[in-house]
Design goal:
The protein folds into two domains: 1-33 and 193-227, no CATH class; 38-192 and 228-299, Rossmann fold (3-Layer(aba) Sandwich), CATH 3.40.50. 42% of the residues lie in helices and 16% in strands. It is built from ten helices and eight strands. An eight-stranded mixed β-sheet has the order 1-2-4-3-5-6-7-8, with helices on both faces.
Length: 301
């Protein structure tokens, strides 16, 4: 083969490899940030199959929308406590779920005397379909929702945040914006999304592919996975935080909660629920779960 032909083949090969890397990175980013979401009906059915949801229907409900980051519209539902109360908690669900994914936490807060606010995180539920930023934009959305809830209830005396998984990451990230809240409960949250994805891809033997997904996320969506770090919002945080994590969580390891516990400056507690897998703590031991929150709410004062 002549020298010129050799160079031509080398250039074509390089272009093919680069194209493969680019396409692969974009597809991985899409898979990571736009996973299939549950419908409201599907989510409610799952909840009803795993615990008693009969408490939901009789509750007085108020539905409205809130403008979050970049004008994005969030669908919200307030659930009034049967016993009149001026205390509220906003509950954020996990990835690929919707507001009904937050229902399993509602009985705990009703028992503790709170009205509950559940909502669809961006890209989920009734909201316009879009990608997930693992807390970056979701944290801004939540900060906007905090302001809306306070504006709607002039007699409000206490407002807390509770989040599960992505909801916990979004809740922790919202602290960067210093929302006017009295406490935070973060259940099975991630300190940074990279360590979770590297673990998941690693178990599939494809750990190095996360670097491609990171590149694709930045190119396609404008946000690198490496920037999705809720833990960085805790360095100056003084709002009391309770970290809850299933001791048997193999998806988001309990170390994530421990690392965030170590980082935050304010009053803090951490509770590991024995035998609980990812996002199953309240279902595995509801009594211990409610007691941990009740003790935290009393102690942080």
């Amino acid at each position: 083969m002549k020298r010129g032909e050799t160079i031509k083949v080398a250039v074509i090969s390089l272009v093919v490899v680069c194209a493969f890397v680019l396409v692969g990175s974009l597809l991985l980013a899409q898979f990571t940030m736009t996973g299939r979401r549950k419908t409201l009906d599907g989510a409610f059915q799952w909840q009803s199959e795993h615990y008693d949801t009969s408490f939901y229907e009789p509750l007085q409900k108020s539905d409205y929308t809130v403008e979050g980051a970049d004008g994005y519209v969030l669908h919200v539902q307030e659930l009034a406590n049967p016993v009149p109360s001026t205390k509220y908690v906003i509950i954020s669900h996990g990835y690929m779920d919707n507001r009904f994914g937050a229902l399993k936490y509602v009985p705990t807060y009703l028992d503790l005397g709170y009205n509950c606010v559940i909502y669809d995180l961006r890209g989920h539920g009734l909201n316009e379909r879009t990608f997930t930023t693992y807390g970056i934009l979701e944290g801004q959305d939540l900060a906007a929702l905090v302001k809306e809830v306070r504006a709607r209830h002039a007699d409000l005396t206490e407002l807390g945040l509770h989040g599960e998984s992505l909801g916990a990451g979004s809740t922790i990230t919202s602290l960067k914006y210093q929302p006017e809240v009295d406490f935070v409960v973060a259940d099975c949250g991630f300190s940074d999304i990279e360590n979770v994805l590297r673990g998941a891809y690693g178990r599939l033997g494809a750990g190095p592919l996360i670097d491609l997904a990171n590149l694709g996320a930045k190119l396609r969506y404008g946000y690198a996975l490496s920037d999705m770090r809720p833990i960085d919002s805790l360095s100056n945080n003084t709002i009391p935080v309770l970290f809850i994590h299933g001791a048997n969580d193999s998806f988001i390891l309990p170390k994530n909660s421990q690392d965030m516990y170590d980082r935050t400056r304010g009053y803090k507690e951490i509770c590991l629920i024995d035998g609980a897998e990812h996002a199953r703590s309240v279902l595995t031991d509801p009594v211990a779960y409610e007691q941990a929150i009740a003790n935290f709410l009393q102690s942080r004062e």
